[in-house]
User: What shape does this take?
Amino acid sequence: MSLAERLWLENADLARACLRHPFIRGIAGGSLPQRNFAWYVGQDYFYLHAFTRAYCIAAAKGVDWDATKAFHALAAGAIEETDLHKRYASRWGVDLNEVKPSAPTRRYTDFLLATAWGYDTGVTAAALTPCMRLYAHLGQEVAKECSRKDNPYIDWINSYSSQEFEALSQKLENLLDRYATPSKYVSETYNYAMLCERDFFDAAWRCKSGD
Assistant: This one.
């Protein structure tokens, strides 16, 4: 079993909690209030800026050319992901330039950037992988049960259940397997990112904003 597979299994309880979360249930059924989703879009857009920067830092610190190229490709994928958020923001009147990060969003982004600046490629991959693997998992599982063709969140579902997104997730997991040394700290880093994901969805469900 690879390190990425082992870390995912070790955090399966958090993955299940996210899949069962009322925010994700609302996306799956199309019943999530648009106010909640609009709030999420703004927060996730802010988050993606930090996520992309963490990729770029990892690319600059890459231990070899393969790592540099892979992290740059992943950064390009994250930039494309922001286009989805821009479309939602335009549709629902969200001014992305006025978004103020919630406390859970700030904790998550600060953690990612501090890890990227302060640690090696393997640890950074451990911090970044949970987001990609979790979203691929959520998208694929929700797609299996989405029966409403008029689901207002079908673009979100299609994006994260796509083969293209799965390929990006696997690329990041390959970096984790190649460059991370199994250790307690790597496991804790992965777990903390998963906890941040859960808290992110919880904040979106409750629409908590501010510092």
